[in-house]
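Hi support team,

I'm opening this ticket because the web form for multi-chain structure prediction keeps timing out on my end. I have pasted the exact lines I submitted so you can reproduce it. The total is 229 residues across two entries, so I didn't expect it to be a heavy job. Is there a limit I'm missing, or should I split the entries? Thanks in advance, R.K.
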Amino acid sequence: AQSVTQLDSQVPVFEEAPVELRCNYSSSVSVYLFWYVQYPNQGLQLLLKYLSGSTLVESINGFEAEFNKSQTSFHLRKPSVHISDTAEYFCAVSVFGNEKLTFGTGTRLTIIP
Amino acid sequence: DAEITQSPRHKITETGRQVTLACHQTWNHNNMFWYRQDLGHGLRLIHYSYGVQDTNKGEVSDGYSVSRSNTEDLPLTLESAASSQTSVYFCASSEGTSGRPYNEQFFGPGTRLTVL
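Hello R.K., no limit was hit. The queue was backed up. Here is the completed structure from your submission:
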């Protein structure tokens, strides 16, 4: 079975500062990795995904994540955050041939003006 | 535009009552999923379906049931609501037949259920 750990439940960051949201996973087989974002009072939206190939993946709004197999991590980074990035971020994992997602407990990102 | 909707958006019920939460998608997706979201637990899979007449138990299926009689709908039923089932419920769907290694799940807006 797979599991996902997000150690930081809340991360406050000043506007225009960089941020890293940590995600570690555990699995005995190869995995696909995802970051989902949930804006206040909304459902989840896919932010970015790693399926194969380049270990660095990017989103259209400036976030990036790097798959590190040796450290079993998929941390999410942004060099300069904006107020509009205020949301809860979920790391998730699935395995090849199985589209079920296993989610982490989420990290609430709060941007301080 | 294609979409996924959930109803009701908010529901208050009493312990012991049967409750059904609706999920409807217009993408013609084969796969549909039900999750519950609780503080400190993230999202946990309740039930899922890979097509009409197919249903499967997820991580936290006790006390819940689903049925898939058509492609568009996957209603979630709480047979006898309990206070522990107070939560926010999300429905999701994905294509399932594209041949791609993974198909993105699209989430509905959620239903907030309170069991008193």
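A quick check on our side: Chain A has no helices and twelve strands. Let us know if the file doesn't open in your viewer.
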